[in-house]
Amino acid sequence: MPTSETYRYFDLPFCSPGHVTDKKEGLGELLNGDRLVSAPYKLDFLSEKDSEVVCKKRLSKEEVAKFREAVSKDYYFLMYYDDLPIWGFIGKVDREGKTDPNEYKYVLYKHIQFEIMYNKDRVIEISARMDPSSVVDLTEDKEVDVEFMYTAKWKETEIPYEKRMDKYSQTSSLPHHLEIHWFSIINSCVTVLLLTGFLATILMRVLKNDFMKYGHDEESAEDQEETGWKYIHGDVFRYPKYKSLFAAALGSGTQLFTLTIFIFLLALVGVFYPYNRGALFTSLVVIYALTSGIAGYTSTSFYLQLEGSNWVRNLLLTGCLFCGPLFLTFCFLNTVAIAYNATAALPFGTILVIVLIWTLVTAPLLVLGGIAGKNSKTEFQAPVRTTKYPREIPPLPWYRGTLPQMAMAGFLPFSAIYIELYYIFASVWGHRIYTIYSVLSIVFVILLIVTTFITIALTYFQLAAEDHQWWWRSFLCGGSTGLFIYGYCLYYYHARSDMSGFMQTSFFFGYMACICYGFFLMLGTVGYRAALLFVRHIYKSIKSE
């Protein structure tokens, strides 16, 4: 599986036209690491070429060594003709019958055969085949003469112009792939149904029993030992520690949740068709900037509901909670890419554009959202009064601690999505194409349902054990799936991908850490909201006076 290290075409000593012309790139394409230049092949419409010579060149020893290294690492080129992608390997390693790597033969392809299909005056399909009979031996460190050539053949086809992209989007929805996807969805659905049924019956029965018991025993309750969730009603709505951080995490999580929903809508409408280069990155940047008002509003209004006083500091924290780590990671990885001279290094202009978007759009919207949240003046809706002094939490067994509960909470939602994760990883890090967004949205909905249910269940068991510090616990339990996804990254890196070298490793783990952190905030918010609804509901239905 090819990995994510990309370089410019003329970084290798191919025939370079005297003056290399760069294509003007959009923001998304630059973020994507595309740096397109004009290639030396002239493919004029309907003009056949037969073994046309591009140039003759004498390769020095250093150039031979450079090509040989690229061939040994399976580098391939990617060109575009009329916005259609063409790719091919630049050479191959002949390993037949040889066990010792020193005996391998390295060859460079010097003849590309283009085959172009057209319908009336439109180009429909293009493919490049490397001529296996015309190669140059690169095995030894000595100067060689190369004659780079190309052939162009034109064929007529009946495929209409509108359908020319279908070929690329079908690769990921081949029948056997689709079967796996649907199997994983059915598998997840069954998990969800069992889980939901199980939880619903338990909670209904337990709560019903609790209500009955607490309803009947109003008179005789004084004599009995007080147990269960009803008896901590005076502490359940005691505000959590670190309110500012809690409010900021909720604000950021709500913003990321909105961002994900918008991206799914765009994907289902069909904006991210294959090779719409950079569309995903552009929309991520733009939507993130536009939704920052949501983060400001949610965070500030919630912080003031918790009777926080310093809302400006809280707003600053909200702005930096997700962007800060992302920016630091980006600075480090961009430096690595510049050191490697890879195309993943963003040019200075692009960095400026992103900084401008942040200062002129994201930050002002965040502040406006914060001011709106401050003026909303909503009060925290607690169905029961909070007592003056906190009740002591009884000693609890080890498995009721935060970490064991997080491990329990993250496992089920992760098991519902992990089959789909493989395909997403393969398309992000392995340049496969992912087009089945409908399946992805179903999986996302399942993920949300499982997260809410598991968090509600764990919150109930926590309150039943008279542990009333459920605020942070519900957030951490909801978000723990993000940590499981990061654990999956380790497995994927070692077992499924051929990544190697410092650059690929740091890019993979650096950016995946940011993505998993985003998931942590987003699912934590979902978990907390679900737990809050549940807790309000059960305490509303008892007369706690």
From TrEMBL:
InterPro entries for this protein:
EMP70 (IPR004240), MFS_trans_sf (IPR036259)
User: Which Pfam family is one of this chain's hits?
Assistant: EMP70
Q: Name one GO biological process term.
A: protein localization to membrane
Its main localization is membrane
- Entry GO CC: endosome membrane; Golgi membrane
**Residues annotated as transmembrane:** 180-203, 245-273, 279-304, 316-340, 346-368, 406-425, 437-458, 470-493, 508-535
The membrane-topology field of this record reads:
Multi-pass membrane protein
Q: Which UniProt keywords apply?
A: Endosome, Golgi apparatus, Membrane, Signal, Transmembrane, Transmembrane helix
Cell location: Endosome membrane; Golgi apparatus membrane
Family, per entry: Belongs to the nonaspanin (TM9SF) (TC 9.A.2) family.
Name by which UniProt lists this protein: Transmembrane 9 superfamily member
What is this organism's lineage? Eukaryota, Viridiplantae, Streptophyta, Embryophyta, Tracheophyta
